Amino acid sequence: MTDQSSSLLPVDEDSVFDPMSDIQPAPAPVADRTRTAHNTHARLEPEELHAQGNDESDSALDTDSASGIAESPAESSHMQPGSQPSTYSLSTDLMSRLKLDQPLADRPVGPGTTPDSVMAMGSAPSTTLSEFSAVGAPSGASAQQEGSGNRRQRNVGRSSFGSNRRRSVDNRDNGAPRDCIWHGAESVEAATKVMNELMVRFPGIRPTAEVVAILNNTPRRAQVVGILRAEGGGDVLRLTPCDPRMPHMMVNASSMPAEIQQRLLAEARDPSVPMRTLVSAHMTTWAAGSAYPVAEIRCSLGQAGELEAETAALLAMEKVSDVEFTPEVLACLPKANEEWSINAEEHAQRTDFTGIRLFSIDPPTARDLDDALSIQPLPGGNFRVGVHIADVAHFVSQGNALDEEARARGTSVYLVQRVIPMLPRLLCEKLCSLNSGVERLAFSVTWDMTSEGHIVSQWAGRSIIKSCAKLAYGHAQDMIEGSFQGLPDQEPPPIELHGCSWPEVVQDVLTLNSIARHLKSARADNGALRLDNTKLFFKMDEHGNPVSAGPYVQREANQLVEEFMLLANMTVAKIVADAFPDRALLRRHPPPDTRKLLAVLELAKSLDIGMDVTTAGSIAQSLRSLREGCTDQAVMEVVTLMVTKPMQIAEYFCTGEHEDSTKWRHYALAVSHYTHFTSPIRRYPDVIVHRLLAAALRLNPALTRPPPDIQQHPPQEAPQQEAGAPLHSTSDLATQSGMPEDSSVEASLDATQGHQARGKQADAQQMQNKQIAVLSNQYGLVDGAMVSETATHCNERKLAAKTVSDGSMRLYLCVLLRQHPIITQGVCLQIGGSKFIEVYISELGMDRRIQLDTLQPAVVAAFDKDSKQLLLSRADHTPSRGSRLQAGSRNNLQQTADSTSSSSKQETVAASVAQSGGSVNQGEVVGISHSDSGEHEVNNSASVESWSQWPCLNGLEFLENLRNPENLQPVALPLELKLFSRVPVVVSARLFGQTGMPSEAFARLLLQ
Fold it and tell me: Pseudo-torsion of CA 705, 710, 712, 715, nearest 10°?
C-alpha cells in the first residue's frame, strides 16, 4: 500500500467530485484608475488576427505560425489622459450603406458589397469605430502596429486617414462623429441590436471592446504585495507589485508604520540587497494626470524567497485571512472545557443510525471528517445505501458572529504545509467531525437501490450516527484489490474498530464499490465528462522543507466515495430547488467556449485524432477511444489539457436569478440539478444548502418518513414530522403562520390542494408563502437577493482559495526544483513557430515554455507551416534536409511513415500517437517510468564533472544535487519536433528576490 500520508491534500470534491472546478479562465489584467475616463471604443476585428503575435500569455497558441489552439489575447487598451467617454451614433447615410434597414435576407453579402468603413474594420483592428466615417477608412500602417500585438500608445494628434479621406471632426455629438456607426445607439438594447446585426452580416469579424470608465474600484487595490526601491534621494519610494498586472506605485516613507520605517527605507536605498523584504500595501489614490498611483504600506511580510514569507504574500494578495478567530466568534461555540454530548431532545427529534454500521473513508491525515457511508442488505436482494454528512448548521446559526466569519472566509484553504480552516478547530476536528466511536449529529440521505445502482426510493432527514471506523483511502483500496480480506491471519490496518468486525467492513466496502462502478458507468452513458488535472503531494523533512514530490494518484477507492457524494449532491439539489425555486443555492457549469472548442476540433483533425465535441458525452467518449489506442499516459494528459482549455469555470448561483431552468445545468456532469451538500465543514455554500434542505423537508413531510427497519429506537409518535426539525410541533407552525391551532402541516397542504382544485391558486400561494416565512425564521433562510450575493462572494472566495493552494504547490515545487534540479522528459504541447516550444512535464503536472533563442548550444530554428514541424540545427552548421536525414536524425525522434492508414478510430489514434515520436538515445525510445508512489528518487549515473560539460546545464544552481532517475542523455542536433514529440529536459527554478516576482520553474532542452 502506497503511503501518501505526507500530503495534506483532502478529498477535494471541488476537483474530484466537481470535474470543472479546476478549470478557470486566465486572470484578466487589472485595470483600475480613479476618476479617469478614457476615449476608448468598441471595435470589430477579424478572427485570424487574434492568433498572431501574442507572446505574453502562456496559454496563447499561434495558429498562423504554430500548431496549437488559438486563444484570444486580452486587447491592449491604451488610455489617454484627459479624454472623455463618447456617445456613438449611426448616420442615415451609413445605415443606408450598411443596409441595416433591410431584412437580413434581402441584404447583399460579400466583400464587393461591404462598405469601406466595415471593410476597414476587418483589415485594421487598431482603428476604433469612432474614427470611421461613411467615406473614411484607416491607413494600413497604423493599424498594423497594434493589430500585430505591439503595445504602443496611439498618436492622438495624427489622423489615421489618407489625404483623400478627410475625417469629419466638426459634426460630433459629445465627442463622437455624427456619421459614426453607433449613432443613436444610446442604450444597451440599441447597442446590442446594432452589434447583433453586424455579427450576422459580417460573420468573419468579431466584436471586441475597450474600457471607457471605472464604475467600481477593484478589491485588488487593497491587496497589493511587492518590494520597495528608492526613487532618488528623497523619501518617496517606488513599490513594485509581485503581480505583474498591477502598476508600479509611489509610497511616501513617512506614511509607513514606525516600527519598520527605518529598516525598509535603508533597504530601499541600497541597490545591492539580494533578497528584498515583501510588504503588504493598499492603493489609496490615482490622480487623473498622474502616471503612478499612491499606496500606503501596511506591514512587512518577510524576506522574498523564504517559504513562510512567500506564503504570507500569497495569502495577502488573495485576501485570505489567517488570523485567529475573535472572542466574539468563539463565544458562539459550546464551552471548550465542558464535555459536549447530544441531549435527549435531539435524540427525540432525529432518526437514530447509531446501530447501523457506517464508516468514513478519507486521506490518512484528514481531521475534518465531513462524510460517512453505510450499506444494509434488504429482503429481495436490494440494498439501502446511506450518505451521512456532518450537521454543521446545527452549530452555526444564521446571522451570528460565527456565521458571519464563516461566510466571510467562504471556504477552508489548503496549503502544502497547513490548512486554514473556515470554522474553529473545535468544530472542524471535534464536534462536527464524524470521528469514530462517538455519537455525532448528521444529515443523512439514503436510497433503496438494486445491486446495479437503480434507485427504488429515497429518504432524507436529520440523524444521529456513530462511525465504527476511520478508514484511509489506502485501506479501502487494499480491500478492493483483495490484499486485505479481514481474515484472522491477516494483520489489520492500525485503526480502531467500534462494534463491528473487519470481515463485515470489508464486505461493505466491496459492495459499495460494486454499486459505485455501476453508478459511474451510468453517468458516463448519460454524457458525463471528467477532466482530471495532475496534483502533487510533497514529503517534508523535519524543518518543513520539501524533499520529494510526486503526482497524487486517484484510485478506485477515491472513485467509490466520489460516486456517492455526487449522488447525494444531485439528490439534495433537486429537493431544495423544487421547494424553493426562488432562493435555492445550486452549482452550475456553463457550456464551453464554442470558438475555442472548434479550435480544439480543428487541431485534432490536423493530427488525425478522432474528436467529437458536440456534447460533454461525445467529448468523454472521444477521450475514452483515444485512451484505448494510446499507451502513453503523458500524451493523454496533453490531449486532456487541450480539451480543458475551452471549458468554463463552474459557479454557485441562486435559482431565482434564472427563471429558465435550462441555465441551471451542469455541463460536465450532464445533470439538470447539482449543488454542494457534502462538505459543510470546509465550504460555506454547503451550510446554506443544509438550511435549505431542513426547511424543504419540513415543507414536504412525505420526504422525511423513515423507511422501515432504519430505526433502532421506537418510531416517533408523529411520523410526518421531519426527523431533524427543531422543537416545534406542527401546531406551533400552524399558529405562527396564522392557521388554526388544531390544523397540521398535512391538513394545510390538503386544504391548499383543495383551493387549487377550486381554482383558488392565489389563496394557496399565500398560504405557502406564510409557511415559507415561518420556515425561513426557524431555519435561517435568507431571500433570493442575499443568496445571490452569497453565491457571488463564495465564487470569489473559492477562486481565491484555489489560487492560493495552487500557488503554495508551485512555491514548494520551486524550492524543491531549485535545490534538486531534475532531468526528465516532456511532451511537446505547442510549437510556437520558430520562436518557442511548450512542453508538458507529466510527473510534475506542469507545462513550461522554452524560448528557442535561449537554447545552449545556440540553434537555428526552421518551422514548416504545412507539416507543422520544427527543425532545430546548430547555429554554426545548418545542413539541408537531405543531409540531415543522412546524418541519422531519425535516430533522435521516432517517425511513422506518411502512408500509414487506419481502418478504425483506435488505429487512427494509435498512428497519431506513433507519429508523435519520442526522444531517444542511440535509437532507443526513452519512456518515463515512475515508482508506485510517483516520487522522484535520486538515481544519478553521471558525475558532476560530466554534467558540467553539457552546455545546456551552464549556470544551473545546485548542479551537485542534479537528479537523473531515468539516466537520460542529451539529444544530438539536428532535431525535428512536432506536436506530441518527447524531448529530454532539465527542470529547475529561479528566485526573484530583487524584483519581488514569485519563484518560477523553468525547463531547458537537453541538447548535446
Answer: 20
914-933: burial string, b at 16+ Cβ within 10 Å, e else: bbbbbbbbeeeebebebeeb
The alpha carbon of residue 113 and the mean position of all alpha carbons in its chain are separated, in whole angstroms, by 45
Q: Are 505 and 497 in contact (CB under 8 A)?
A: yes
DSSP state of 659: S
Q: Are strands 455-466 and 439-449 parallel, antiparallel or unpaired?
A: antiparallel
Report the run of H or E that residue 201 belongs to, with start and end.
helix 188-201
Which residue, among 49, 53, 144, has the nearest Cα to 833 in the 3D structure?
53
d(CA 864, CA 833): 8
Written as one letter, the residue type at 1000 is: E
> For position 706, what pLDDT does the model report?
59
> What secondary structure letter does DSSP report for 553?
P
> Considering only CA atoms, which of 149, 151, 152 is closest in space to residue 53?
149
DSSP bridge partners of 903: none
Q: How far apart are CA 82 and CA 257, in angstroms?
A: 35
Question: How many Å is the maximal CA-CA distance in the chain?
Answer: 99
- Output DSSP code: residue 518: H
Cβ–Cβ < 8 Å for 313, 382: no
* β-strand pairing of 249-252 with 294-303: parallel
Cβ neighbour number for residue 47 with a 10 Å cutoff: 15
Asked if 517 and 501 touch (Cβ cutoff 8 Å), the reply is no
Query: Are the CB atoms for 695 and 775 separated by under 8 Å?
Result: yes
Task: Write down the pLDDT at residue 413.
Answer: 97
Question: What stretches of 202-359 show up as alpha helix (H) in DSSP?
Answer: 258-268, 307-317, 327-330, 344-349
Residue 177 to residue 134: CA distance in whole angstroms: 10
**Which of these, 366, 346, 494, 499, lies nearest to 428 by C-alpha position?**
366
- Phi/psi of residue 699, nearest 5 degrees: -75, -30
Query: Is-contact 685 782, C-beta < 8 A?
Result: no
| Residue 695 burial (CB count, 10 A) | 26
Q: Which three cell numbers stand for residue 677?
A: 451538500
**Nearest in space to 933 (alpha carbons), one of 17, 6, 11:** 6
Amino acid 734: pLDDT: 32
Cis bond before residue 974 (omega within 30° of 0): yes
- Phi, psi at 246, each rounded to 5°: -90, 145
Supply the pTM of this predicted model: 0.73
Describe the strand order of the beta sheet including 1000-1005 as a list of residue ranges. 846-851, 836-841, 822-832, 982-990, 1000-1005
- Other C-beta atoms closer than 10 Å to the C-beta of 7 total 19
The span from the CA of 938 to the CA of 948, in Å, is 18
Per-residue burial over 618-649, b = 16 or more CB atoms within 10 Å of its CB, e = otherwise: ebbbbbebbbebbebebbbbbbbbbbbbbbbb
Q: Which residues of the chain have pLDDT under 70?
A: 1-181, 336-337, 703-768, 877-946
Written as one string, the DSSP assignment of 936-950 is: ------S-HHHHTT-
